[in-house]
Amino acid sequence: AQRVTQPEKLLSVFKGAPVELKCNYSYSGSPELFWYVQYSRQRLQLLLRHISRESIKGFTADLNKGETSFHLKKPFAQEEDSAMYYCALQNSGNTPLVFGKGTRLSVIA
Amino acid sequence: SQTIHQWPATLVQPVGSPLSLECTVEGTSNPNLYWYRQAAGRGLQLLFYSVGIGQISSEVPQNLSASRPQDRQFILSSKKLLLSDSGFYLCAWSVGPARFNGYTFGSGTRLTVV
């Protein structure tokens, strides 16, 4: 069965410092991976997806199949990045996304 | 434009009372629909999903049920609420497999069972 692990419940960094939110997955096939973000008092929303290889709000994520990881990175954290971040996986077919337990990022001024 | 409506936003219900949470999608046809429960430290737990009218898949055997009476309507129900049903319930939709475009989430319902 597929599983998504986010080892850190809370991550605190200073403004301007680099950020890395860890995500590891277990799935034997070729999954599609996503990062979702929930800012205070806002809806959970898609941040970026592996398939698009995009950079959103300065965040990037690279799929490492050897390490089965999809870590989210940003070189310089901003206070507005403080939020709850979820990593998610979808396998082949039309099955639902599987989410990790989430990491709360707190950027300290 | 495509939107998703979820109501009510908050709900306080006594133990043993029934529950009905509604989710409606606009601006698309034949969406995949999902109910998740979000709990602190436990992430997003998939409860039910539906790929078409009358088609419901249950992921977690529990006190809840779901129905899809219309193409763009998804309802989460319970006949008798338990204290453990308290939580934040999220509805989401996708056009086809989520692997292409991900989900769009509703604003959620905070349910407190007292």
Report on the structure:
The complex is a heterodimer of chains A (109) and B (114). Chain A is an all-beta fold. Chain A is 0% helix and 43% strand. Chain A has no helices and eleven strands. Chain A has strands at 3-5, 10-14, 19-21, 24-26, 32-38, 45-49, 60-61, 72-74, 83-90, 98-99, 103-108. Chain A starts with a strand and ends with a strand. The mean pLDDT of chain A is 92. Chain B is mostly beta strands and 114 residues long. Chain B has a single domain (3-113), classed as Immunoglobulin-like, CATH 2.60.40. Helix content of chain B is 4%, strand content 58%. In chain B, the strands form two sheets. In chain B, strands 2, 4, 5, 6, 9, 10 and 11 form a seven-stranded mixed β-sheet that branches. The mean pLDDT of chain B is 91. The interface between A and B is medium-sized, with 26 and 25 residues.
At a glance:
The complex is a heterodimer of chains A (109) and B (114). Chain A has no helices and eleven strands.
